[in-house]
Amino acid sequence: MIYNLLTPFSEDFFLFNLARYHTFRAGAACLTALLICLIFGAPIIRWLRSFQRGGQPIRDDGPERHLIEKKGTPTMGGVMILTALVVSTLLWADLRSGFVWAVLLVTVGYGAIGFADDWLKVTKRNTKGVSGRGKLFAQAVIGLVAALWITALMPGPLADRLAVPVFKELLIPFGVFFPLVGMVVMMGASNAVNLTDGLDGLAIVPVMIAAAVFALIAYLVGNRVFADYLQLNYVPGTGELAVLASALIGSALGFLWFNAPPAAVFMGDTGSLALGGALGGLAVATKHEIVLAIVGGLFVVETVSVMIQVFWFKRTGKRVFLMAPLHHHFEKKGWAEPTIVIRFWIIAMILALVGLSTLKIR
């Protein structure tokens, strides 16, 4: 909104000219989102406590210490993240950008699904919430609409093709089925972040790291000069997504202030489904879907651990891991929570660097 208001006067007022630059607005969006969380975080947490008697329901079959250490902590902290992210994006992004609105659709839509799930959990005092099929169906509908929207905004040669990192000219054609690919990417990223969110700060920092990578990718892919120099697929208009990704970083930083161990609030499905959906939307819009699997490799590993556990238990009645997702396996082995969290952060950072390297290796 600020961009749309100030740019008509950019030639008359020097300071207004700053609004034309993605870098300035991305930094401003990050700081704005951070400040919104820091200012309104405590009131939001008090509001969540007011109707969550007993806080987030804790699984009886989970690590035993969770029943003691995490009992009474409110959930649905994703409301804080979403509020800061959306307000900051609307303030600093170019509201004429279809890419921004498409990714916001996924983010807010998936957040609404998570909110419904969390609401049922805290009001009915159980860990079931919305049925698995119900969540997947709603995610599929929203993801498909967003993927169709993004595909319609794409340049012709890229609209229905999947870009492969490292190989600069390799594009896999999917034709009319590409929106289904985009939908799967968004759903997969959303649920992967959701599965990773199990310890204080475990999911939010890798999300920030991935968002930082995609803020850079969006800026480069949306700039003809940088895209040509790095031999990336140029997608006009995606530079605005750097503003949204930066707002995501700021809101995640603000949430981490309250989620740092011992957490005063959990993001819940409201936050995890929304944040994963946002990363998936950024990946599809910038034509870096496969790079997301590298940068977000930690989320992939957590998800695969669950799939392996379920598959093997159904076939043999035995477990591969002491408990899935993987972070619970290490809890069962006696690792301290901060040890698991920080080591997983390190892994996320390494994978982000690997993902970034694909921008130069061509």
TrEMBL record:
Coiled-coil regions, chain positions: none
| Source superkingdom | Bacteria
Locate the transmembrane regions by residue number.
24-45, 75-93, 99-116, 136-158, 170-189, 201-221, 241-258, 265-284, 290-313, 340-359
Kindly tell me the pathway this chain contributes to: Cell wall biogenesis; peptidoglycan biosynthesis
Q: Which UniProt keywords apply?
A: Cell cycle, Cell division, Cell membrane, Cell shape, Cell wall biogenesis/degradation, Magnesium, Membrane, Metal-binding, Peptidoglycan synthesis, Transferase, Transmembrane, Transmembrane helix
Q: Does the keyword Cell wall biogenesis/degradation apply?
A: yes
**Annotated catalysed reactions:** UDP-N-acetyl-alpha-D-muramoyl-L-alanyl-gamma-D-glutamyl-meso-2,6-diaminopimeloyl-D-alanyl-D-alanine + di-trans,octa-cis-undecaprenyl phosphate = di-trans,octa-cis-undecaprenyl diphospho-N-acetyl-alpha-D-muramoyl-L-alanyl-D-glutamyl-meso-2,6-diaminopimeloyl-D-alanyl-D-alanine + UMP
- Mind telling me what this protein is named? Phospho-N-acetylmuramoyl-pentapeptide-transferase
- What species is given as this protein's source? Roseomonas alba
Gene encoding the protein: mraY
